[in-house]
């Protein structure tokens, strides 16, 4: 049943708290068993959690046999259980799977293919297993090469779960301890700040934090930003909004780290990388989630002198990072994303979804903002007052309502009032049709 | 050719620097291409690096067709390209591979099976992707639940590569920055400290560092130790050496974290877990490397109240940690290690290798110490002076000499003078025969 107001949100992924009265006895026992084995860090999505046992393309099937449309998972970017990726993985795993202390054809070939998609100045790659490790390494590199310690991130950023990375990930929740050399800037929110030069405003925010660090004797190591400001509420930061900020960061001697764990691999449409949309050249780019369609592969791409400087001092080794089998899967993902019309599909479907949702919502006459880039879409719900007071309750009702329609989405933002719509990149016309008809019904039912 | 003295060691894995005059033109070009793409953090093992293109069981085949015996890689614990693990992985990957925001049968079943192998007090598991992430999380948990910041590790510890973990991993090399709240204790070295009560001595070392932290107002969050002191030079710490230290740690309000990334999953023979050999009950145990035979799976096992306390405050989420496909592989590894005489094989082969190497070396009349537990074996080479001055040169010659015999081993320890012998757990009689005859020839040739 939808219409159930979520009692509370957590921040990493905004989740409704389970309502155990909604689930059958078997599911309840599984939730209890899981909780007893894994502990309370493990949260579940939706008032009525999903228990998928099979998946293919953009569809998942629940244990009950119900078919679900996946409009949320960015990780299986070329579709759940993609046969080409499965084959690349299992063929390589049957052949050999070792580590980078040996010469390996796969990691060299993949690094070459991956780097050929970047600006020529971004010509070195290091491989790790998770986006958290990638961001941790990028900031280690930044601190080592700049000799400075300060980090600036966005107000409600989430960059991962290592101790360092969580120290500049306020969205990790109230238990997250920020580092004393971390400063935060508000996201460039085009919905709530209309009519001002956002680029100039944002650069001034960054400069103010650089000045504050400097007043305490702390230099800037890096400014790190997620390419879609996803946990901040999904702000695509179009029109060169970040360009001036990048200049300010460089002038302070810091590095510009673009976290493309969310925005990379074609997610934002047309381009493979978010930085192309921004019109900036980052010093370091971090990659993750969709990189191997769900296998643990992540990386840092950067300019050679940074890695030269860091690597000469630190013999970084990652046992699994760069391993043949996961790299073979990653290479196949890159081939698919580049070869088969995926990028143009992302742009087309993204435009259609945003346009149609805007029409559906405007008919409902409610204060909303539909925004995003490619297939990373946010829909913000607020009350109809002049302050545009966030409305997480309606947002949660739409998330749970869509789930009852068999369509998976979630919510984001510091107030949990922004729908997060982020399907696999192979989301097609039929998927969009189904999504939109469900969305229209839910909007009508919830009374948005 | 062997007999080439390594010019320099690095610390994470002690490596000889490549001698490009030893490799053919194709290999040289590959090394150069790799270096241009990945940068200098990426080191290679052996004066003449290995370029394996196929592997099965305990054997690898080089691009030139040469067969190599693997006496080094602990990660493919049930053998390279193990068919049961490949099948478990690819079957699951074809079916579904998502994350722990959904109910998943695989992670619950595996957590149950894994925890049933631990002491009943160690009854919660969290899953991550790498040993680094596991140790990072364990120390985050320790700091959060104790409210204290101090960390004690061993003098030449290596626990991984995140910023936090490298801050208590001095073996990460001179570029590694230790945290100001980190203190180090020497390893319990049974070779250089004969005739003293090592347990009492070691506890006093730990107490001294606790006192030093306290004198600066820093309480102890955790004492973390690798279950075989591998980078410290492989000290098996038998006979309850750690028991008194554990008491001292608890009295100071700190947690005892046992890093079983190296020592877990039967590596030390007879038992599945190193702590059973130590006769202690750790608060947290971290797992990694062999957990899924080379796929990125790692974890933290601990007592429920610690995870309860941490999880209530921190909604930790790891995108790939606990994913169905890698977990299916891990579960199959656990089945194989438990079911098929692997543990007794480890004990038997380990005893035989140690005994035979001792005999071979004692005939050579050189000051050496052969030690270890199960199939984690160290052979220390020193000069024949009263100080037992470490002899990294001879050690490197033996490593490269074995490589020329087609047998892979490496070296460890702060001085790089301890052979590290750590084959897959399925190393059998024929493997041991081949290993020992090569070892005997190399010892004779090098003139140990």
From TrEMBL, chains A, B:
Gene3D superfamilies: Aspartate Aminotransferase, domain 1 (3.90.1150.10), Type I PLP-dependent aspartate aminotransferase-like (Major domain) (3.40.640.10)
Keyword Transferase applies: yes
A matching Pfam family: Aminotran_3
Domain of life, per lineage: Bacteria
Transmembrane is among the record's keywords: no
InterPro entries reported in the protein's UniProt record: Aminotrans_3 (IPR005814), Aminotrans_3_PPA_site (IPR049704), PyrdxlP-dep_Trfase (IPR015424), PyrdxlP-dep_Trfase_major (IPR015421), PyrdxlP-dep_Trfase_small (IPR015422)
CDD domains attached to this UniProt entry: OAT_like (cd00610)
Official protein name in the record: Aspartate aminotransferase family protein
């Amino acid at each position: 049943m939808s219409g159930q107001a979520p009692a509370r949100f957590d921040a990493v992924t905004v989740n409704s708290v389970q309502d155990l009265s909604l689930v059958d006895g078997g599911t309840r026992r599984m939730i209890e068993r899981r909780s007893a084995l894994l502990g309370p860090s493990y949260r579940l999505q939706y008032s009525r959690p999903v228990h998928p046992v099979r998946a293919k393309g953009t569809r998942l099937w629940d244990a009950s046999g119900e078919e679900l449309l996946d409009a949320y998972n960015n990780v299986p970017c070329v579709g759940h259980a993609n046969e080409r990726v499965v084959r690349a993985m299992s063929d390589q795993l049957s052949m050999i799977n070792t580590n980078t202390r040996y010469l390996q054809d796969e990691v060299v070939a993949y690094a070459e293919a991956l780097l050929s998609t970047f600006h020529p100045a971004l010509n070195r790659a290091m491989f790790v297993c998770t986006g958290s490790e990638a961001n941790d390494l990028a900031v280690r590199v930044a601190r080592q090469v700049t000799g400075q310690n300060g980090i600036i991130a966005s107000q409600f950023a989430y960059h991962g779960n290592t101790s360092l990375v969580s120290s500049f990930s306020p969205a990790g929740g109230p238990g997250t301890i920020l580092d004393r050399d971390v400063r935060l800037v508000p996201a460039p929110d085009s919905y709530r700040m209309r009519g001002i030069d956002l680029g100039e405003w944002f650069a001034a925010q960054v400069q103010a934090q650089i000045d504050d660090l400097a007043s305490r004797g702390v230099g800037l190591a890096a400014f790190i930003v997620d390419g879609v400001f996803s946990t901040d509420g999904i702000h695509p930061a179009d029109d060169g909004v970040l360009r001036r900020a990048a200049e300010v960061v460089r002038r302070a001697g810091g590095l510009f780290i673009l976290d493309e764990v969310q925005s990379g691999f074609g997610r934002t449409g047309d381009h493979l990388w978010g930085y192309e949309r921004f019109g900036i050249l980052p010093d370091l780019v971090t990659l993750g989630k969709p990189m191997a369609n769900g296998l643990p592969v992540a990386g840092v791409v950067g300019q050679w002198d940074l890695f030269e400087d860091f690597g000469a001092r630190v013999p970084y080794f990652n046992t699994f990072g760069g391993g043949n089998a996961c790299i073979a899967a990653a290479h196949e993902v890159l081939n698919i994303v580049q070869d088969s019309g995926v990028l143009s599909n992302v742009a087309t479907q993204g435009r259609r979804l945003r346009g149609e949702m805007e029409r559906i919502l405007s008919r409902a006459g409610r204060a909303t903002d539909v925004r995003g880039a490619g297939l990373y879409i946010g829909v913000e719900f607020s009350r109809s007052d002049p302050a545009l007071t966030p409305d997480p309750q309606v947002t949660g009702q739409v998330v749970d309502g869509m789930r009852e329609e068999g369509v998976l989405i979630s919510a984001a933002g510091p107030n949990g009032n922004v729908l997060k719509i982020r399907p696999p990149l192979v989301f097609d016309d039929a998927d969009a049709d189904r999504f939109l008809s469900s969305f229209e019904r839910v909007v009508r039912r919830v009374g948005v």
